[in-house]
């Protein structure tokens, strides 16, 4: 089955803690994206990557970091610098031509 | 930058047609999309239209694009309770990234 997987489904963060959200795809897509979703708002782009070992900041990158060591994987770290991390995080991927973007099931991050 | 707007809520009766509207500001859009999101889930691509098309039909879904007014709509025929979800309009600008609207929450009443 081809697709995008995200784990965990729910994640709890304590104050001052860094947490990492996993995103894996087996669609052979070159481009991968991280979005943040808050209630009543559209998706906001955090980071994106079009090729291994390269990534660019999106609109709200502060307090987040990413890596792209493999084509299939694009983990997102929510650092302690992100003061309001509670949100639903969505990972997506596309071909470089970007005709369509496919989404994973999401990770809900909650702060304890 | 690009701005994509949608009304936040829509209620319809089961069996009626639903029309969800979207407006955007940048005329250099290449592709325009409709996604569906059910509670607690990711976004599911419903359909998309290339910017040189006026209309696209796919079973119960009809997409209309008015480039002059920068207006995109999604019509769902014979709306069912399973269609209750949030519907996102998204626009891809040439050489740039996707821009999403805030989503329209569709409620289907029995």
Describe the structure concisely:
The complex is a heterodimer of chains A (112) and B (110). Chain A has 112 residues and is mainly β.
Structural features:
heterodimer; A: 112 residues; mainly beta; 7-stranded mixed sheet; 4-stranded antiparallel sheet; globular; B: 110 residues; 6-stranded mixed sheet; 11 strands; 60% strand
Q: Can you tell me about this structure?
A:
The complex is a heterodimer of chains A (about 110) and B (about 110). Chain A is an all-beta fold and about 110 residues long. Chain A is built from no helices and eleven strands. Chain A has strands at about 5, 10-15, 20-25, 30-35, 45-50, 55, 65, 75-80, 85-95, 100-105, 105-110. Chain B contains no helices and eleven strands. The chains are: A mainly beta (about 110), B mainly beta (about 110).
Largest sheet of chain A: 7 strands, mixed
Low-confidence stretches of chain B: none
**Global morphology of chain A:** globular
Order of helices and strands of chain B: EEEEEEEEEEE
Percent range for helical residues of chain A? under 10%
Largest interface: A-B, 23 and 22 residues
Radius of gyration computed on alpha carbons of chain A: 13 Å
Describe the sheet with the most strands of chain B. 6 strands, mixed
Strand content of chain B: over 45%
Q: How many strand units of chain A?
A: 11
Q: What's the helical proportion of residues of chain B?
A: under 10%
Estimated structural class of chain B? mainly beta
């Amino acid at each position: 089955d081809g697709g995008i997987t995200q784990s965990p489904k729910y994640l709890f963060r304590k104050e001052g803690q860094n947490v990492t959200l996993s995103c894996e795809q087996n669609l052979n897509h070159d481009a991968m994206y991280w979005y943040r979703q808050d209630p009543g708002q559209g998706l906001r782009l955090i980071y994106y990557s079009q090729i291994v070992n390269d990534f660019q900041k999106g609109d709200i990158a502060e307090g987040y970091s990413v890596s792209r060591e493999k084509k299939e994987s694009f983990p997102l770290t929510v650092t302690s610098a992100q003061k309001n991390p509670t949100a639903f995080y969505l990972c997506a991927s596309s071909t470089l031509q970007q005709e369509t973007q496919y989404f994973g099931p999401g990770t809900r991050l909650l702060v304890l | 930058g690009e701005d994509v707007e949608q009304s936040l809520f829509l209620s319809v009766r089961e069996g009626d047609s639903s029309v969800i509207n979207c407006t955007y500001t940048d005329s250099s859009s290449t592709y325009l999309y409709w996604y569906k999101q059910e509670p607690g889930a990711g976004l599911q691509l419903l359909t998309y239209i290339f910017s040189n098309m006026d209309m696209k039909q796919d079973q119960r879904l009809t997409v209309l694009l008015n480039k002059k007014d920068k207006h995109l709509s999604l019509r769902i025929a014979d709306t069912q309770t399973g269609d209750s979800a949030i519907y996102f309009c998204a626009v891809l600008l040439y050489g740039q990234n996707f821009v999403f609207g805030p989503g329209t929450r569709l409620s289907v009443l029995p």
